[in-house]
Specification:
Shape: elongated
Distance between the termini: 33 Å
Number of strands: 4
Number of helices: 5
Strand content: 15-25%
Radius of gyration: 22 Å
Helix content: 25-40%
Number of domains: 2
Structural class: alpha+beta
Order of helices and strands: HHEEHHHEE
Largest sheet: 4 strands, antiparallel
């Protein structure tokens, strides 16, 4: 166990900090320390953007091909995740209840910056083919790609 982690756990056991504060401190220490034992030959770069690309294969009757290119800065997502931790408990409970009413069993208290980073690490290149069959609009295939760069 490294020295910083040990100090954080000692502060937690001594009642100087809460469990949430200890978790945040440990996450911050882990981000600063070099990962693993240096066995990775290529250092991993932090993703800067989340990209969503949508392209249709065929033209509609009155429209050209659909092309959508959305590029969201990861810093915006990371800041949003951090801000979620500042939501007061009563407000968070109300939001969670409202989301459950609409069929989304989701708990805002479980959103942590580490979760976003784990998702980004696993999101190499997601590609989804969507079949569109709308007699009034367009038919054909639509390709959706979600990835980080």
């Amino acid at each position: 166990m490294n020295e910083n982690r040990k100090q954080i756990l000692e502060m937690l056991s001594g009642g100087k900090i809460s469990a949430d504060e200890a978790e945040r401190l440990i996450a911050a220490v882990e981000k600063e320390s070099p990962p693993g034992n240096g066995s990775d030959s290529s250092p991993k770069t932090k993703a800067k953007y989340l990209r969503v690309l949508v392209e249709s294969e065929e033209n509609g009757q009155d429209h050209g091909p659909v092309k959508v290119n959305v590029r969201v800065p990861m810093q915006l997502l990371r800041a949003g995740v951090k801000l979620a931790g500042l939501i007061p408990v009563q407000a968070r409970d109300q939001v969670n209840a409202a989301m459950r009413e609409h069929g989304m069993a989701f708990d805002l208290s479980q959103i942590k910056p580490e979760n976003l980073e784990q998702l980004v690490d696993q999101l190499n290149d997601l590609s989804v083919d969507v079949d569109v069959d709308d007699p009034e609009k367009r038919k054909g295939k639509v390709k959706v790609r979600v990835f980080c760069e």
